[in-house]
Write a structure and sequence with these properties.
- This protein is an alpha/beta fold.
- It is built from 13 helices and 8 strands.
- Strands 1, 2, 3, 4, 5, 6, 7 and 8 form an 8-stranded mixed sheet that branches.
- The longest helix has 13 residues.
- The radius of gyration is 18 Å and the shape is globular.
Length: 276
């Protein structure tokens, strides 16, 4: 199984090494992305029925349910949802989860007042069809708020290791503009066009820059498991992997300050309403 094919196949990726890496890194990633919860959930109130798209290991669903009392998280990753369900049970949280593809799942019509996603909507094979399907799940006037990454040039932390690894990993797949993946929604005009064509109204796309940080000690596990380079590193023999990790670690030096790794998440905050 080649890495390029794996990265192109979202089902295999998120039910295989990609999903397992997020499960194993759940605490690290929850802490890292915690500053993104307030802008995602601002204005949410008790009683709202929430659909969390691409909910992963459940942090956003748990947070939404703690406010509204009613949140369904949907994701294609069985291992990530297994952890999400366990977390909800342990916390006595009302969040529920379904393992399904939001772009084709048959939602009950008019079931949700809010649709949210934190970095979960950039992986659709056909985003226009996906958002048309999600529109069916929304009540008239429902709000949708999405956080998605802007481009690679706006997020140097996210791509510095890929650029540093290029001499040693020449087969590392490149980022294809618009293809499913982290930067699929980098073009704001394209995002507006997709949502409007899918039937959503009052579409607004605003730049959102949020400072993120993690302990310097978390950098090695982050680098060795996550992202395209992390997937390739997992396939290397241990000695070769350790040697390459030591080289790649140097690429992050500009982001290390006082024992912490600090960078800005350059995102789009995308707002829309269900027509009605």
């Amino acid at each position: 199984m080649s890495t390029p094919n794996l990265l192109d196949d979202q089902q295999r990726l998120w039910n295989g090494p990609g999903g397992q890496a997020w499960v194993d890194s759940q605490q690290l990633l929850d802490a890292l992305f915690a500053p993104l919860l307030p802008p995602l959930l601002q204005g949410l109130s008790f009683g709202a029925r929430v659909l969390d798209i691409g909910c992963g290991t459940g942090a956003t669903s748990l947070a939404a349910a703690s406010i509204s009392g009613d949140c369904l998280g949907i994701d294609i990753s069985a291992p990530m949802l297994e952890l999400a369900r366990t977390r909800a049970e342990v916390a006595s949280n009302s969040a529920r989860f379904v393992c399904a593809d939001a772009q084709v799942h048959e939602f009950a019509a008019g079931s949700y007042d809010w649709l949210i996603s934190r970095f979960g909507v950039m992986f659709f094979a056909d985003p226009q069809a996906a958002f048309a399907n999600l529109l069916k799940a929304a009540i008239s006037g429902a709000r949708m708020r999405l956080l998605a990454w802007r481009g690679a040039e706006d997020n140097p932390f996210m791509v510095c290791v890929e650029r540093a690894a290029a001499p040693w990993l020449p087969a590392l797949p490149g980022r294809r503009p618009g293809a499913p993946g982290q930067f699929a929604f980098a073009d704001a005009a394209r995002v507006r066009s997709i949502l409007q064509a899918a039937g959503w109204e009052a579409v607004e796309v605003h730049a959102l820059d949020v400072p993120l940080s993690m302990p310097e000690s978390a950098l090695q596990p982050y680098l060795s498991r996550l992202g395209p380079v992390g997937l390739v590193l997992q396939q290397l023999p241990e000695i070769e992997r350790a040697a390459l990790l030591a080289r790649l670690r140097q690429a992050f030096e500009p982001f290390v300050k006082g024992g912490r790794v600090e960078f800005s998440a350059a995102c789009w905050q995308i707002e829309a309403r269900a027509r009605g």
